[in-house]
């Protein structure tokens, strides 16, 4: 299996425990399709203990469904009551949507139930062997910010229409690899599978009920296939600008179960080729300060200028939507003879009359003007949303009174497998840069972890003015700070 490794270290010193807690709300008026979990994996090599927690939530703090105090409270309780150092605890958000606190139990219960999963995992440590490798799944993910011919970016979102086809230059890269940590009991039976993949979980299920989205369904496939009380644990990767390719599909029900099954099966296929053995553990973390965004006023002023320019292009037209739509369909169905059968056009040509040709010319002019206004309206709606978003982040940054935001970069080594974290919704380019620069072949990029600082875009993306650099509290300089810290952490591992 490409990307797998045979480990020759004798088995016996590494132990692992797993457990999960249901963290779904108990409010009766909230419809639940499938439960949200906090899944815990505890590893102990006799010297070092680590806890990896995956939560079916949007983010770990900052105005989301988990409070800002959650991580500190959880780590303090784990260290105080279980003896695992707080700095050795990794908490990842699977980033399941929609973001609302009503999805979950209350703040105190979140800490209590997540702690209980770690406690039970620690109490049930079992001798294991581990192996690591990569799988691949490229069928359902797409970089949601496309390149436009004018150099800008346009993001695939439900909040506004997509760009017009003739204005699109092309799509951008994603990371299709599945990072896999295979954990087996000493008798060779499966114990746990930790898998890391990069893609927003947005599609949901029919009716908009609470769901863990495709990560939860992928875990179900793995656990049901392997049996033997196996637990699957999903870690979200550098999926900040990655979405499901069917995210805006209007022809099939919104159901993430099929893509979850695809990811689960691809993970199982790659897992089967991974060999296992013993491994040692190591944890390194560095705390840094990311610069907060300071250019919001300039960006808002530029958007308002664009807004006024676009408003000035709107012109009069004799059509409204009622007359436009049937006329547009008629001219699209038969561009050569849109107004009537071809013999009418031939008859007029024979007698030297051009009434239908002139009618078509007039109608096409009106159709073109109406289409231009529709295009302008769609651009205006996106600009208005961007202005509101920038103003929100500007207020959010200003209320702190600080020019930087604290962030943690944590690295965990399990044998030759390395996890490197970021509290940002890391975009594909940044994640790939960190992985490609890592001295460790088996490096898994784990974004959405140990805090939340919203989107982490590459500095070069800020000029594109796409959604991820609008929904952003960070200055472009954050990338250099993060990549340099990640490089130091990886080097120490």
H and E string: EEEHEHEEEEEEEHEEHEHHHHEEEHEEHH
What is the percentage of strand-forming residues?
A: 15-25%
Strand order of the largest sheet: 4-3-2-1-5-10-11-12
The structure class reads: alpha+beta
Distance between the termini: 26 Å
Q: Which stretches of 5+ consecutive residues score pLDDT under 50?
A: 1-11
The biggest sheet amounts to: 8 strands, mixed
Count up the helices.
11
Integer-rounded radius of gyration = 26 Å
* Total number of beta strands: 19
Give the overall silhouette.
elongated
Q: Mean pLDDT score, rounded?
A: 94
Question: How many domains make up the 3D coordinates?
Answer: 2
Classify the helix fraction into a percent range: 25-40%
Task: Detail the topology: elements first, then pairings.
Layout: E1 15-22, E2 37-44, E3 49-55, H1 70-82, E4 89-93, H2 107-123, E5 126-136, E6 141-143, E7 145-148, E8 153-155, E9 168-170, E10 177-185, E11 190-197, H3 213-226, E12 231-236, E13 242-244, H4 257-271, E14 281-291, H5 296-313, H6 321-333, H7 342-351, H8 355-400, E15 404-414, E16 417-421, E17 425-426, H9 428-437, E18 442-446, E19 455-456, H10 467-470, H11 478-492
Write a compact overview of the structure shown.
The protein has 493 residues and is of the alpha+beta class. It has eleven helices and 19 strands. Helix 6 (321-333) crosses helix 8 and helix 9 (428-437) packs parallel to helix 11.
């Amino acid at each position: 299996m490409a990307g797998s490794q045979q480990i020759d270290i004798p088995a016996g010193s590494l132990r692992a425990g797993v457990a999960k807690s249901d963290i779904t709300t108990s409010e009766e008026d909230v419809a639940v399709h499938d439960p949200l979990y906090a899944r815990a994996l505890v590893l102990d090599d006799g010297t070092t203990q680590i806890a990896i927690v995956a939560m079916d939530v949007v983010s770990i703090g900052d105005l989301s469904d988990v409070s800002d105090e959650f991580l500190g409270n959880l780590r303090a309780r784990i260290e105080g009551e279980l003896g695992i150092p707080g700095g050795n605890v990794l908490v990842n958000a699977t980033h399941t949507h929609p973001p609302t606190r009503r999805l979950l139990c209350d703040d105190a219960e979140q800490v209590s139930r997540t702690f209980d999963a770690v406690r039970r995992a620690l109490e049930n440590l079992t001798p294991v062997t581990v192996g690591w490798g990569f799988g691949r799944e490229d069928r359902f993910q797409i970089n949601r910010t496309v390149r436009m011919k004018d150099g800008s970016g346009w993001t695939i979102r439900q909040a506004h229409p997509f760009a017009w086809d003739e204005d699109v230059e092309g799509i951008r890269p994603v990371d299709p690899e599945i990072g896999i940590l295979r954990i087996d009991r000493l008798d060779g039976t499966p114990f746990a599978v930790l898998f890391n993949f990069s893609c927003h979980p947005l599609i949901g299920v029919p009716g908009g009920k609470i769901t863990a989205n495709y990560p939860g369904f992928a875990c179900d496939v793995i656990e049901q296939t392997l049996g033997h009380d196996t637990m699957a644990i999903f870690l979200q990767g550098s999926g900040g600008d990655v979405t499901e390719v069917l995210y805006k599909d209007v022809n099939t029900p919104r159901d993430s179960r099929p893509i979850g099954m695809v990811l689960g099966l691809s993970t199982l296929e790659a897992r089967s080729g991974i060999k296992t053995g013993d491994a040692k553990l190591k944890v390194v973390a560095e705390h840094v300060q990311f610069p907060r965004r300071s250019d919001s006023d300039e960006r808002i002023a530029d958007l308002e200028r664009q807004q006024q320019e676009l408003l000035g292009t709107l012109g009069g037209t004799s059509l409204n939507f009622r007359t436009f739509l049937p006329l547009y369909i008629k001219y699209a169905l038969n561009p050569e003879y849109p107004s009537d059968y071809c013999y009418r056009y031939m008859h007029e040509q024979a007698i030297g009359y051009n009434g239908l040709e002139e009618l078509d010319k007039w109608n096409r002019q009106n159709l073109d003007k109406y289409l231009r206004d529709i295009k302008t309206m769609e651009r205006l709606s996106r600009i208005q949303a961007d202005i509101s978003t920038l103003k929100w982040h500007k207020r959010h940054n200003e209320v702190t009174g600080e020019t930087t935001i604290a962030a943690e970069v944590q690295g965990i080594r399990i044998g030759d497998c390395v996890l490197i974290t970021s509290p940002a919704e890391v975009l594909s380019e940044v994640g790939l840069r960190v992985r490609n620069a890592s001295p460790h072949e088996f490096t898994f990029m784990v974004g959405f972890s140990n805090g939340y600082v919203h989107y982490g875009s590459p500095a070069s993306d800020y000029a594109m003015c796409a959604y991820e650099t609008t929904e952003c509290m960070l200055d472009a300089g954050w990338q250099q700070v993060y990549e340099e810290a990640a490089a130091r952490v990886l080097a120490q591992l």
